[in-house]
Amino acid sequence: xxxxxxxxxxxxxxxxxxxxxxxxxxxxxxxxxxxxxxxxxxxxxxxxxxxxxxxxxxxxxxxxxxxxxxxxxxxxxxxxxxxxxxxxxxxxxxxxxxxxxxxxxxxxxxxxxxxxxxxxxxxxxxxxxxxxxxxxxxxxxxxxxxxxxxxxxxxxxxxxxxxxxxxxxxxxxxxxxxxxxxxxxxxxxxxxxxxxxxxxxxxxxxxxxxxxxxxxxxxxx
Length: 221
Description:
mainly alpha; 3 strands; elongated; single chain
């Protein structure tokens, strides 16, 4: 005998009441199975998924977002200002947490931007230094103090007017012309630019000290 719609609904309600805990457990297990599937799929295909997302975004998304922004620029800016004003502390906490968790990424992005926009980066730095002379001196003094504390000082030549002490490594220092020292942005801490500046410094030292000394020995020896 075929049941009516009302009978079916009543049966379902009764079944649910009698098996409520079992149903909840079964549903929870299914949710965990789905989550585990997604985790496993993401672990195996994350690179492929991200690549497709980037491709789709670069081809279609950027253009759509640009058009939308230009069309609604004033409204978007107004909403941004209102949101920031109402959530200033929350935003600061979130941004600080993100910076703390992404220091290497931030450093890499900053380094790449400076490399691609060297002239603009120099303009911005010069302007900041002019607007913040006291803060600049404080940071410069702090950097020099930390650097001297962490590095030994074994000079390979003597100081001369207009020279900078360049650390070839954590121990050896070579005094070279200031202009040469500033010609390559470098950092002993990260290794950035060290190979290039060390090559130039040693070449300068060879030309001005070693070869001159050698010729003097030949001439007067």
